[in-house]
Amino acid sequence: MMRLMFVLMGIIGVMPGAFAADAPASTDTTPAPRISIFSTSTDWEGLTGLRYSEYRGEFITSTKLVGRGLVLYYLDGFPCYGLGEGVRVWLGPRDRHEGELRIACLYAPTEIKFTWRNATRDADQAVSTGILTCPVDASGRELTIDLERCEKGPDWTEYK
Asked: What distance in Å separates the CA atoms of residue 128 and residue 155, rounded to the nearest whole number?
């Protein structure tokens, strides 16, 4: 009985290999792209010995940049990363806004970057235009971003 079990287990172990031998071999040798969406920011406390603190951003609007509306998405970058829903802000004419900038930082940043596009508040989400680099003034845990002092980078179509 025991010998029969070993024979059956051997046959079952060989069967998948026999079927695989009949399958056509793949001729595609191109490796599939491997994309990682994991942030490196989770190790910054451990790597630097510094502690995260939450910072909130306040915007001083610019009529020439805001126009009928300006959508900003915060771009993670040392020493900060965005916190959940706190990375998207819509700024409109007459100091109207929706959303707030909330970021976790090891120390107050002196400059931050956003993707940007002009759009009304209720416009559907769409591709942004490019990068906006802004100097930051910090007072405690409050950050002030004066949009007049921000610099527009190249549009996405200009990147290679």
From this structure: 9
